[in-house]
Structure formats: structure tokens, C-alpha cells
């Protein structure tokens, strides 16, 4: 499941070190309530920081003591020679209680700043100049500036200015009204910030899935169960009467909405193969072989316990839920090295490939080769669009919908249309920054010039119309430059990923896990299904991953993740036993009728809980920093 959070990206979205009023340079905060903290990483020679000083002054004047304005240094000495000197000058002034006077003066004056010019202003402040000169070049001052700089880099900050509002990075517009709205926190802004903060949590996607599954279990095991089942079993049709596609609501969640999820799966597989952990064959061998072992071992355990009537469920314990697994690893913090997270994520990608092959090969329904031929033609059209370098999204969407219909009619699980679409979505080489910067700068310069002219005289109707045209042109140019930074595939992935994590998969989990916990387990076959799924997840997954990895490393065709101890590796292997939404889908596909699907799903939930607890306990038993290579 492609939900492994990139830790560097997450760290860049939140402030790693909280504001410390005894250490940080801060203004404001005297209000009794409603205080908001704005942290700015700045450079005294950055032209953009200098332009924004007016906006920041307006914000302080508007919000008064309810705004805490915190400044941290991020001097870019390479681009702005002398920036480090000015940062140290403010710290030398701060040693005598005059930081903000020096700070304001540097932003109000025009560069260049020679040391004598800075000394003259320090003298005008009445500072002890001998102490100022000593502090300016002292190791303590240099270390203070370097500390801010290093922390900023660790926080993923590469440009100035960079804003954090109440600890969350602000990446929206920098104009006064946009910043004021973010700082005043109206209801819509609060909802947006809360949602973004929740999404930044490492385990948020897994937590949402868990809540959906719990809600479904409550619905299916309380007096509202008849209403729940009525909703899930209700028929819903798209298209003309008698000629459209008609399925139950639960089936639409499974085959319809999951197509978007499988689109993300396909895009992640494609990225890993072309530029990720699966690029280098040597680096990819271990997770590939481990994933195969993690499928074969639980399948073997299940089949060893199964009867001919229940053997079709062998695939249920073979799928790994990387959303939960990576989330648990992230919550365990420094105990888990980054290389081990990459290994688990790469294993999950291969696991996804095997799961999709299993769905396509072993669980077709009333197979119809004629419709499959139509699906092949639709796939060929996607290929033709890609080769023709069609970058608009709508042709791909139209053909993908036709592909989905044909796969559904052929008997193949139609959600696989998402994977096929992912293969053919176009990519572009990364653009050179200079032309895009020139385009954006030209558009904004034209807009600024028009606004300057409009302020000189009373604008006429013609002047207002001209200004509006310039604004529209600037908007188009900025949108085009922004869009070019991402390929169509990347734009679609970014657009679909939040919907998949917090809407599509939770809805599927809500429909798939709504099973009665009071199922009949008296028959031997039911108990075999339950035991096969639970043991497959709790024992089969880690055994398969560990055995395959050990053989691969001993044969010297694969390399263990750097800095990973044997105990950590065992814990991660146990966490791979957390079954995912695909496991629930497998249960429905393997047992479309009867009691076995409900029993298998109970096994997935119970086995996943046991695997998560066991894996987390093993990893938590390792002290941070005690990692030794396997």
C-alpha cells in the first residue's frame, strides 16, 4: 500500500524545535488569549525578506500583542556574501539588549553593508563598541548563528523567507491578506490547519483506516446492523437503464473507488523502479526476495491447514499494510534507522505487485475474452497518448474509464485499471529553474509596475481594465510556471493521494470490515480458515521475510539495511504481518458466498493486531542508538 511517509518531507512541514522565549528573538505575545506564533527564517541580504518587511510590519500593527513574531537566522553566504556578518551583528547587539533595533535597521537600509557602516549604527545606539567588536567575532556568536542555520537545514528549509505558524510550515501566498487570514485563524483556516497537522502525523492514514474498521464493526454488531447491511447491499447504477453498470454500494467501493488507490500503487511502483529503491538491481534484491518469501510462507501455512473447500483463501494472509507498518516504525522514533524503513517500503511495493497479479490471475469472475480484447485496445490507446506526448489529463481519464468498464465486463477486477493507467501517465524531465524563475519574475514585475502606475493618478475605466488584463496574464504565467514543476503523473499523484488515504480506503474498510463477530466457528473448516489467516500473518509473514532475507544475504546477492540489528530486523518482519485493505479484498474475492469471507476477515483483524503488538514490542525493546549491522 503506497502510504509510506517520507520522513524528510514530514520534518519539513513542522517546526522541529519549539519556540523558546528565553533563547529565541521574539516580539509581542502580551495578549491574554488568542496568541499566535509566527516564526520566520530570514537572511538580511535576501531581497525577498527585505520586501516582506512591510507586510510583517502591517501584520504586527494589525494583530498587536496577539502576534508573537520570532526571527531565526538562515544566512546564505554563498548567494549573499556578507549575510553571515550581518547575522552576527544582530547577535552582538542582542548581547547588549538591542537585537530588534539592529534587526530593523538592517532591513530598512539599502545594501551594501560594510563593517564600518554597521559599526556606525551600533555606535549610534550607544553600545559598548569594544564589547560589540569582541562579540561580533566571538565563537559564541558564530555558534549561535550556526545553530539557527543548522536547525533550519535539518527542518528542510532551503530558501528565505520561510514561515511557520504555530509550528506548522506556511506555504501559501505571502501577501498581507493571505498571511493575516492564516494568523487570525477563522474557522475555515483552523479546519485546514488541523487537517494538515493530522495528515502530517506518521500514522494518520493508518489511524483513519483503523477508525473506519472499528466503525464498521460497531455498525455490524449493534442494533443498527440491518441499516448498515441495507446500505452496503443497495444497488447503484451508472449509465442508461439496462445498459449501464450496476453494482452494490460495497462493490462500488471495492471495484470503483479502489481504482484510484491502485493508481497510486502503480505510480509508486513505477517511481521505485525508475528512481527509487528498486532502481539498482543489487539494492533491490533483498526486498524483492523478502517480499516473495513473505507471500509464499503464509500461503503455505494456510494451505497446510486448509481443506479443498477453503483452499481458495490462501491469498488472504499474503498482503502487507505499509500504512500501519511504516506508521508504527515512525512512532518508534530513533530506534528504527532510515535504511530499515526504506527496506520495508520497498518490500511493500513488491508485495503490492504480487497482490495485483494474484487478483488478476486467480480471481477472475465469469471471464469474457471479448471484453478483455476491448480492454487491451483501451490500454493501447493510453500507450498512444503517452507516445504522442499528450500532457492534458482528460484524454487519459476518458480512456481509463472505458478501460475500467471493459475490465469489469470481462470478469477481471476493474480496480486494476488504475495500475494500467499509472504505467502510461506521462512524465517530463525536471525543468531548469532559471527560465521558470524569469517567467515568474517577469509576470510579477509587470503586475507591480501596473499597481505603481495605478496609485499615481485616479484610475480611469481604461486603466482599471488594463490592470485587470495584466493580473490575468500574470496569473496564467505563474500557473504555467508552477504546473511545469511537476509532471502530469506527479500532479495526479499529489491530487489523488489525500483522497485515497482519507476517503477512498476508509470507505472501503468501512464496507469490507462490517462483519458480525458472532459468526459460526463451530465447524472445523471455519476454524481452519481462521487459524490459517492468523498464523499466516503472525508467523508466516515474518518467517518468510526472515528466511528469504537470510538466504539472500548468505548467498551474497543482497545486502542488509545499514545500521540495522538482528532484533530490529525481526521486529520489522513481524510488523509486515499487519494485513491491509487488499487482504480484506482477497477474502471477498476468494469467498464470494458463505461464511468463510467473514471468518477470514476476522482472522485478518486478529492476526494484524497480534502482528502489530509483537513487532512493536520487539522494536521497542531495542535502545536508541544500539543498532548493529545484521
Question: What's this, in brief?
Answer:
With 630 residues, the protein is mainly alpha-helical. It contains 25 helices and seven strands. The chain has helices spanning 7-13, 47-63, 83-94, 99-108, 115-124, 129-136, 139-154, 176-184, 187-199, 204-220, 225-233, 249-275, 281-305, 322-331, 338-362, 369-387, 394-410, 417-424, 433-456, 461-484, 488-512, 524-554, 566-575, 581-590, 596-620, and strands at 25-27, 36-42, 67-73, 162-165, 168-170, 235-238, 245-248.
Sheet having the most strands: 5 strands, mixed
Structural class: mainly alpha
Q: Helix fraction?
A: 55-70%
Quick one: CATH class of the largest domain?
Mainly Alpha
Described by the principal axes of the CA atoms, the overall outline is globular
Low-confidence stretches: 1-11
Question: What do you see in this structure?
Answer:
The chain is mostly helical and 630 residues long. The chain has three domains: 7-197, Glutaredoxin (3-Layer(aba) Sandwich); 204-363 and 413-426 and 490-620, Na+/H+ antiporter like fold, CATH 1.20.1530; 433-486. It is built from 25 helices and seven strands. It has helices at residues 7-13, 47-63, 83-94, 99-108, 115-124, 129-136, 139-154, 176-184, 187-199, 204-220, 225-233, 249-275, 281-305, 322-331, 338-362, 369-387, 394-410, 417-424, 433-456, 461-484, 488-512, 524-554, 566-575, 581-590, 596-620; strands spanning 25-27, 36-42, 67-73, 162-165, 168-170, 235-238, 245-248. The strands form two sheets. It has a five-stranded mixed β-sheet with strand order 1-3-2-4-5. A hairpin with a 2-residue loop joins strand 4 (162-165) and strand 5 (168-170). Helix 12 (249-275) crosses helix 21 (488-512), helix 19 packs antiparallel against helix 20 (461-484) and helix 23 (566-575) packs antiparallel against helix 25. It is globular. The model is unreliable at 1-11 (pLDDT under 50).
Amino acid at each position: 500500500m503506497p502510504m509510506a511517509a517520507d520522513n524528510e518531507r514530514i520534518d519539513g512541514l513542522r517546526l522541529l524545535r519549539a519556540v523558546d522565549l528565553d533563547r529565541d528573538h521574539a516580539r509581542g505575545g502580551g495578549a491574554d488569549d488568542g496568541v499566535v506564533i509566527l516564526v520566520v527564517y530570514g537572511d538580511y541580504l535576501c531581497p525577498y525578506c527585505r520586501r516582506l518587511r512591510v507586510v510583517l510590519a502591517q501584520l504586527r500593527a494589525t494583530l498587536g500583542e496577539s502576534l508573537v513574531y520570532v526571527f531565526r537566522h538562515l544566512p546564505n553566504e554563498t548567494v549573499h556574501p556578507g549575510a553571515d556578518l550581518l547575522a552576527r551583528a544582530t547577535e552582538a547587539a542582542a548581547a547588549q539588549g538591542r537585537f530588534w533595533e539592529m534587526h530593523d535597521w538592517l532591513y530598512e537600509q539599502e545594501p551594501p553593508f560594510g563593517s564600518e557602516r554597521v559599526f556606525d549604527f551600533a555606535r549610534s545606539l550607544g553600545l559598548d563598541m569594544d564589547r560589540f567588536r569582541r562579540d561580533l567575532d566571538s565563537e559564541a556568536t558564530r555558534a549561535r548563528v550556526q545553530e539557527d542555520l543548522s536547525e533550519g537545514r535539518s527542518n528542510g528549509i532551503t530558501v528565505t523567507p520561510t514561515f511557520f505558524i504555530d509550528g506548522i510550515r506556511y506555504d501559501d501566498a505571502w501577501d498581507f491578506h493571505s498571511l493575516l487570514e492564516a494568523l487570525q485563524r477563522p474557522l475555515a483556516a483552523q479546519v485546514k490547519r488541523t487537517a494538515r497537522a493530522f495528515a502530517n502525523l506518521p500514522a494518520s492514514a493508518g489511524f483513519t483506516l483503523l477508525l473506519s474498521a472499528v466503525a464498521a464493526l460497531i455498525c455490524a454488531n449493534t442494533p443498527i446492523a440491518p441499516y448498515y447491511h441495507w446500505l452496503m447491499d443497495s444497488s447503484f447504477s451508472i449509465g442508461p437503464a439496462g445498459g449501464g453498470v450496476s453494482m452494490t454500494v460495497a462493490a462500488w467501493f471495492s471495484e470503483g473507488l479502489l481504482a484510484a488507490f491502485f493508481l497510486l500503487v502503480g505510480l509508486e511502483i513505477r517511481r521505485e523502479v525508475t528512481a527509487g529503491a528498486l532502481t539498482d538491481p543489487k539494492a533491490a534484491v533483498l526486498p524483492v526476495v523478502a517480499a516473495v518469501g513473505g507471500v509464499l510462507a503464509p500461503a503455505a501455512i494456510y494451505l497446510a491447514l486448509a481443506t479443498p473447500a477453503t483452499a481458495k483463501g490462501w491469498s488472504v494472509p499474503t498482503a502487507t499494510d505499509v500504512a500501519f507498518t511504516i506508521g508504527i516504525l515512525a512512532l518508534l522514533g530513533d530506534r528504527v534507522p532510515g535504511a530499515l524503513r526504506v527496506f520495508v517500503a520497498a518490500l511493500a511495493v513488491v508485495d503490492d505487485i504480487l497482490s495485483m497479479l494474484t487478483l488478476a490471475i486467480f480471481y477472475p469472475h465469469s471471464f469474457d475474452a471479448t471484453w478483455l480484447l476491448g480492454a487491451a485496445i483501451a490500454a493501447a490507446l493510453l500507450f498512444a497518448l503517452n507516445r504522442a506526448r499528450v500532457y492534458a489529463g482528460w484524454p487519459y481519464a476518458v480512456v481509463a474509464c472505458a478501460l475500467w468498464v471493459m475490465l469489469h465486463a470481462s470478469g477481471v477486477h476493474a480496480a486494476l485499471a488504475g495500475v494500467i493507467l499509472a504505467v502510461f501517465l506521462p512524465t517530463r524531465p525536471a525543468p531548469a529553474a532559471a527560465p521558470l524563475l524569469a517567467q515568474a519574475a517577469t509576470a510579477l514585475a509587470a503586475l507591480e509596475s501596473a499597481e505603481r502606475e495605478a496609485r499615481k493618478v485616479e484610475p480611469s475605466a481604461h486603466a482599471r481594465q488594463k490592470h485587470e488584463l495584466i493580473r490575468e496574464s500574470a496569473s496564467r504565467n505563474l500557473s504555467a510556471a508552477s504546473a511545469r514543476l511537476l509532471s502530469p503523473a506527479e500532479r495526479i499523484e499529489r491530487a489523488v493521494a489525500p483522497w485515497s488515504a482519507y476517503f477512498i480506503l476508509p470507505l472501503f474498510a468501512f464496507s469490507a470490515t462490517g462483519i458480525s463477530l458472532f459468526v459460526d466457528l463451530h465447524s472445523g473448516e471455519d476454524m481452519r480458515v481462521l487459524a490459517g489467516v492468523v498464523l499466516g500473518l503472525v508467523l508466516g509473514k515474518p518467517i518468510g521475510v526472515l528466511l528469504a532475507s537470510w538466504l539472500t544475504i548468505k548467498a551474497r546477492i543482497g545486502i542488509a539495511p545499514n545500521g540495522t540489528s538482528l532484533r530490529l530486523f525481526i521486529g520489522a518482519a513481524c510488523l509486515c504481518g499487519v494485513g491491509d485493505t487488499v487482504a480484506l479484498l482477497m477474502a471477498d474475492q476468494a469467498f464470494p458466498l458463505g461464511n468463510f469471507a467473514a471468518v477470514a476477515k476476522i482472522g485478518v483483524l486478529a492476526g494484524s493486531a497480534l502482528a502489530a503488538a509483537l513487532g512493536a514490542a520487539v522494536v521497542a525493546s531495542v535502545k536508541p542508538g544500539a543498532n548493529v549491522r545484521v
